Amino acid sequence: MSFDGKTRILKIDDKSLKAARELILSEELVAFPTETVYGLGATALSDSAVEKIFKAKGRPSDNPLIVHVHEDYDIEKLVYIDHDYARKLREKFVPGPLTMVYRSRGAVSPIVTCGLDTVGIRVPYHEGARKFLRAVGVPIAAPSANVSKHTSPVTAKHVYDDLSGKIPLILDGGKCSGGIESTVLDVTTDTPIILRSGLVTAEMIKEVVGKCEYSLNKPTDKARAPGMKYTHYCPRCETALFGANETERAQSFYDICVKDGKKPLFLSYGDLDNKLSGNKFYLGKTAEEIASNLYYGLLEGEKTYDVIIAFEVVTGSDVDVGIMNRLSKACAKK
């Protein structure tokens, strides 16, 4: 099946899954839902298919991709599992929002790994993703289904807004519940190392295997996982980020924006909502609620407002680390 230049959005059923399988096996692209964000998938076994991902997204060629498989797929066809703790983590967190980086057997396209000797493997628990991965029957390389550097999509419509005319099919599985990308964990060393923070936190990992560290990323280091090197998650409007205790400064900035003829929007959470006056999108009270709503707030906000004003997220949860990883990058360009 070839791409005719038209992008279809289809609910996930037997008919759409058959179409998805035909497209994937024809080395075309299919966007699909996961519990975190929508992914842009191609067979990980084909150089030409994976190249289409980079082209559609405008993604830098040295930014590696994650490989997605269903829960019954034998990942040891693709990787070496060098440490017993990795098996314990799989038992606890897989399927789920955890990507584990292993030594690669070289079975996937080198374009997926950007020439590295490691590859990240994830098993999503979203029912639509599981149906898609079973239907296609091959490992799927998939970054987020958006134009590179833009905010990651959490609905099929968000995908369409970015990639219409560039991909043949979007499988619609509703709004993603997790809202930020998976934790990426290097399991090639004696101690598991978080390369990208997410909903599976360092504390959760320590509870299972007793140890976990964060990667000390240098600007000159080659990216070993998505989200480590480049600007990401940015909405298409002006942004500002304030400390959690800077509501007065933020309100003053909001008022200046209004005087300048701009339409600002607060991304508020917790009790901050009561301290702010004006247009507001409420992210939630808990870290999990905030993570779930973050990208939706950024993407919906950019459609109507000229400036999005966000705040440092401090809830006391270890998930705050992953949220701030995304939010600081989303607000990097003011």
At CATH's second level, what is the architecture of the largest domain? Alpha-Beta Complex
- Euclidean distance between termini CA atoms: 43 Å
Classified in CATH, the superfamily of the largest domain is: DHBP synthase
CATH topology of the largest domain: DHBP synthase
- Over the alpha carbons, how many angstroms does the gyration radius reach? 20 Å
Mean pLDDT: 94
Spans where pLDDT lies below 50 across 5 or more residues: none
Number of strands: 16
List the helices and strands in order.
EHEEHEEHEHEHEHEEEHEEHEEHEH
Task: Please give the structural blueprint.
Elements: E1 8-11, H1 14-25, E2 30-32, E3 39-43, H2 47-57, E4 66-68, E5 79-80, H3 84-93, E6 98-104, H4 110-113, E7 118-122, H5 127-136, E8 140-141, H6 156-163, E9 169-172, E10 183-186, E11 193-196, H7 202-209, E12 213-214, E13 238-242, H8 247-259, E14 264-268, E15 280-282, H9 287-304, E16 307-311, H10 319-330
Parallel strand pairs: 1-9, 2-9, 4-7, 6-10, 11-12, 13-16, 14-15, 14-16
Antiparallel strand pairs: 2-3, 3-8, 4-8, 5-6, 6-7, 10-11
Helix pairs in contact: 1-5, 9-10
Describe this protein's structure:
With 334 residues, this protein is of the alpha/beta class. The chain has 2 domains: 207 residues, DHBP synthase, CATH 3.90.870; 93 residues, Rossmann fold (3-Layer(aba) Sandwich). It has 10 helices and 16 strands. Strands 1, 2, 3, 4, 5, 6, 7, 8, 9, 10, 11 and 12 form a 12-stranded mixed β-sheet that branches. The protein is globular and about 60 Å long. The chain starts with 7 loop residues before the first strand and ends with a helix.
